[in-house]
Amino acid sequence: MGDVRDLYPPSPAEVPQELTAVTLRYRVHVLLTGAALAIFVLCYIALLYAAYRLGVWLWNIPIRVTLSEPASLWAFVFKYASLGAIGLFFVFLLRPLFKWRTPTATGQVEITRDSAPTLFAFLDRLCAELGAPRPDRVFVDRTANATVLFDVGVLSLLRPPKKDLCIGLGLVNALNLSELKAVLAHEFGHFSQKSSRLGSYMYIADRVLHHLLFERDRLDEWLELWREIALPARLLALALQGTRRLLVLMYGFVMRVYQRLARQMELNADDVAVSVAGSDAIVHALYKLKFAEECLGRVEEELGFAVDQGIFTDDMFYHQTHVAERERRRRGQPRLGLPPELPEEPDGSHRIFKPPDEDDQPDLYGPHPTFYEREQNAKRIYVRCPIDERSAWLVFDDAQVLREAVTREFYRTRFERDPVPMSPAREVQKFIEAELAEQERLDRYEGFFALRKCWAGDPDRLPSVAVLEPKEIDEFLKSWPDQEALALGKQYLTTRSGRAAMAIQIGQAVLDSAETIQLGEGEAISINDARRVVREVDKELATLESRLHEIDRRYIAVHASIAKFLDQSGEGETRELARLQETIKLEHALDRATKTVRQALDRLYALIRGVDELEGEVSKKRVEAAIDKLQNRFRTVRSRLKAVLDELGALELPDLPNIKAGTSAYQVVVDPLDTEFPEDKGTPPTFDEFVALMIFALDMLPRLERLQTKVIAALVGQCERLAVAWEKSRSRLAETAPADRPDPTSGAGGQEQKVGDA
Which of 307, 340, 417, 736 is 20 to 30 A from residue 576's alpha carbon, by CA? Predict the structure, then answer.
């Protein structure tokens, strides 16, 4: 265990008292929030009381059942069925209060004083300096964040809730000791805020409303069945629907008021951080946060490549560091994600966040101020303090064990896989680098070699392409890639990415039974309009592809000519042209498969939406006719996807990064999937089969696109090697050929040689 006295960063020598003073504005926000929350709670209680009074009234109605009066029997049944419905109303309103907090999907791991004595000594000293209560429990997870967790339930209405601390190791991996101290002090600032009791009540209210609106269980399913046969159940359903709408309106008002307080609480917590770590440490931590999140997102994506082949790393944060270093090299910015150096003057301050553009301005009443606002607040009274640049990992005992434990939880929560066995991060990084090498090759062309056919012609006609003059080849290679190609490629890539993002939004809206999708800040369009936009974008992509193919023909003709020359001269590997032709054939096959899967997804989204729209149809004949049509279309989509699977099974792959030669495309694309292809059972497909096929296609598409990218990169790599071989051959021949003899590569007597037609 390290001595915490050596690891605890220095605090500012002098801190003005007004820095952390509670302002009148803050007190007013607390008062308004408390009043709004009280109104919400009173409405909630009033609903329960009204139901109670109705139940008492029904219970006291005397009903005498006699066989000679059938109406009395019906009255008896209605009375007690209604009392049952009122009881269920109570259950529906009260059950969310008994939902206790569980670990989040980020995969939290609890640490204790015994397992992390240095960290707890660090926290104890910081709490003592701040006069803040210690956290009840401490967790770590993989995120690039730190947060306070409320252990809330119905008892939290009667006593102050216990507060836990969760530290994201993705952020720790980017911070130094002073920045970690500032971040933890910010969180302990929340611990000290008396208004945090309001925050716990708001959390409970949010849980209640979320459960009432979105969560469904067997009780809801039973009510749906009961309402079909019983009038009291229908009345209960109407009462619940009205209650939900009323609570949503009330809670929306409460949240608008509370969010103003929450923003001020964030700024006040920053003031607490400034008081013990200076004005710069918390701002620098904020500056590092966004880049740390970006790198962590890339890590999760890249580790997904390895998961498909059963490879699991033992330290995801090792890869986060590598991603950061790679991005700095790739962008040519050695200090990317790092704040600028502090001015040498002791009282010198600098600003690192710019005011957000009007289009990027967040909601005025959102829960968090912008980073610009937080920096302005932290430096309104500038407090200089020495920065301890040592790594924040120093306060974590057995850091490697902790990193491995959080990484294991990452696999369990993100991929629902038990990572056995886990491999050393260095070995997995080699796998990732091999996986990314080909993508980095394509990145140099800025989208020209995106996911598309890299040559529109028939691969079987490649041997008949005319052999170009050496001078033409030299001129092309000298200027390749030119600005026209790069500009078209960038435009195509941007357009295709936008199209893919909109398709995902449409699919999610269909699954959520939503009517619109968001295009931008406050801008929404209907799903039908979004589909029309997608069709227009498809036409634009087709036009761009046509222009790209014009350049492709020249590109392939140049390298096919080089391959023919090398094959004839024996200077390169044998079968250069044949290898080029085989790669293009494979790329064409994968392009067909990718387009088929994309089209299938578009059709499946439309089919599922069509099924949803039938719920409001009252004509039984129309419903039956529509279902029959939808099912026939579904069978067509399924048969096309089955044909794709058969074709992938017949495609034998060459030697590619992390793929052995002879492996089938099916093994790479389909075998790693957790979902299975829903085969035709010979019975009419159900709605669940519609969704299952869509999920299968969604899981399959990114793996298919990744394989196609590898093959395109292999094609480009072959062409680059051919160009290098051509340059070497030209140089060697120029050195050895007599001055009065024509260039051998220009054909007999300097005349152009043709092999077939263009």
Answer: 736
Closest to 591 (Cα-Cα) out of 662, 503, 496: 496
Q: Which two tokens stand for residue 474?
A: 């030299």
Task: Give the pLDDT band (50/70/90) at residue 202.
Answer: low
* 570 contact partners, CB below 8 Å, separation of at least 6: none
Residues in the chain: 758
Placement of tokens 């120029």 in the chain: 734
Question: Nearest 5°: CA angle at 320, between 316 and 321?
Answer: 120
- Per the DSSP assignment, residues forming a β-bridge with 664 are 652
Question: Residue 485 and residue 480: Cα distance in Å, rounded?
Answer: 9
Residue 536 CB burial class (10 angstroms; 0-12, 13-18, ≥19):
exposed
What is the C-alpha to C-alpha distance for residues 425 and 319, in angstroms, rounded to an integer?
Answer: 7
Nearest of 661, 639, 454, 419 to residue 551 by alpha carbon = 454
Pairing of strands 138-141, 109-111: antiparallel
Q: Which amino acid is at 640?
A: R
Tell me what the mean pLDDT of segment 320-331 comes to.
94
Rg (CA), the chain: 33
Q: What is the pLDDT of residues 166-178, one digit of tens each?
A: 999 999 999 999 9
The per-residue pLDDT for 179 is 97
Q: In the numeric block, which tokens belong to residue 178?
A: 């002073």
Backbone angles phi, psi at 227, to 5 degrees: -65, -20
What is the spatial distance between Cα 120 and Cα 142, in angstroms, rounded to a whole number? 19
Q: Is 328 left (phi over 0), alpha (psi -120 to 50) or beta?
A: alpha
Angle at 557 between CA 551 and CA 561, to 5 degrees: 150
Q: With bands split at pLDDT 50, 70 and 90, how would you rate the model's confidence at 161?
A: low
DSSP-H helix ranges across 98-176: 117-130, 169-172
Q: Which of 34-38, 317-321, 480-484, 646-650 has the lowest mean pLDDT?
A: 34-38
| Per-residue pLDDT, 253 | 78
Q: How far does Cα 625 stand from its chain's mean position?
A: 39
The answer to whether 410 touches 316, Cβ cutoff 8 Å, is: yes
Whole-angstrom distance, CA of residue 580 vs CA of residue 716: 10
Within 13 Å of residue 604, how many CA atoms lie on the same side as its CB?
30
The residue behind tokens 């000290």 is: 192
Q: b vs e for 143-157, b when ≥16 Cβ sit within 10 Å of the residue's Cβ?
A: bbbbbbbbebeeebe
Dist CA 146 CA 185 (whole Å): 11
Q: Tens digit of pLDDT for each residue in 437-465?
A: 888 888 889 889 988 888 888 888 888 88
**Extents of the domains making up the chain:** 18-378, 444-453+468-750
Q: Is 80 exceeded by the pLDDT of residue 230?
A: no
Rounded to 5°, angle at Cα 259 from 169 and 38: 120
- Cα(146)–Cα(140) distance, integer angstroms: 9
- Quote the DSSP letter at residue 66: B
Q: Cα separations (Å) of 379 from 140, 337, 343, 348, 352?
A: 30, 21, 14, 11, 11
One-letter amino acid of 663: T
Give the whole-angstrom CA distance, residue 165 versus residue 109. Answer: 11
DSSP secondary-structure letter at 481? Answer: S
**Cα separation, 573 vs 561, whole angstroms:** 15
Give the closest residue to 623 by CA, choosing from 632, 614, 633: 614
Distance separating alpha carbons of residues 85 and 91, to the nearest angstrom: 10
